[in-house]
């Protein structure tokens, strides 16, 4: 990405899936809280396969901070084995107005 795009606060979107002990450990609640602290938007969900999935959108630096949190921190009782990121792209506007838990 060019320096100009970074300076103009380019918006990014990325999908994620977190593997490990991430269900039944308040992972969604902590994800929502961290997203609000960072100022990113999107969603988080517990799918039936035992992972946590979602999407994050916002300024590139904040999305990167959230990616790091999803890869290394998580909720206090979670154990993150790996996090896969996909469909990372620059977007012209945010698709969400906040960060929510989907069921």
From TrEMBL:
<dbReference type="GO" id="GO:0003998">
    <property type="term" value="F:acylphosphatase activity"/>
</dbReference>
<dbReference type="InterPro" id="IPR036046">
    <property type="entry name" value="Acylphosphatase-like_dom_sf"/>
</dbReference>
<dbReference type="Pfam" id="PF00708">
    <property type="entry name" value="Acylphosphatase"/>
</dbReference>
<feature type="active site">
    <location>
        <position position="28"/>
    </location>
</feature>
<comment type="similarity">
    <text>Belongs to the acylphosphatase family.</text>
</comment>
<feature type="domain" description="Acylphosphatase-like">
    <location>
        <begin position="13"/>
        <end position="103"/>
    </location>
</feature>
<dbReference type="InterPro" id="IPR001792">
    <property type="entry name" value="Acylphosphatase-like_dom"/>
</dbReference>
<dbReference type="InterPro" id="IPR020456">
    <property type="entry name" value="Acylphosphatase"/>
</dbReference>
<feature type="active site">
    <location>
        <position position="46"/>
    </location>
</feature>
<protein>
    <recommendedName>
        <fullName>Acylphosphatase</fullName>
        <ecNumber>3.6.1.7</ecNumber>
    </recommendedName>
</protein>
<dbReference type="InterPro" id="IPR017968">
    <property type="entry name" value="Acylphosphatase_CS"/>
</dbReference>
<keyword id="KW-0378">Hydrolase</keyword>
<keyword id="KW-0007">Acetylation</keyword>
């Amino acid at each position: 990405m060019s320096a100009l795009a970074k300076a103009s606060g380019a918006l990014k979107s990325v999908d994620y899936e977190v593997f490990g002990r991430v269900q039944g450990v308040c992972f969604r609640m902590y994800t929502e809280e961290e997203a609000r602290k960072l100022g990113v938007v999107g969603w988080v969900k517990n799918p039936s396969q035992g992972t946590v999935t979602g999407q994050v959108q916002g300024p590139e630096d904040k999305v990167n901070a959230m990616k790091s949190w999803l890869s290394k921190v998580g909720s206090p009782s979670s154990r993150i084995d790996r996090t896969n990121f996909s469909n990372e792209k620059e977007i012209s506007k945010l698709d969400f107005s906040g960060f929510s838990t989907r069921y």
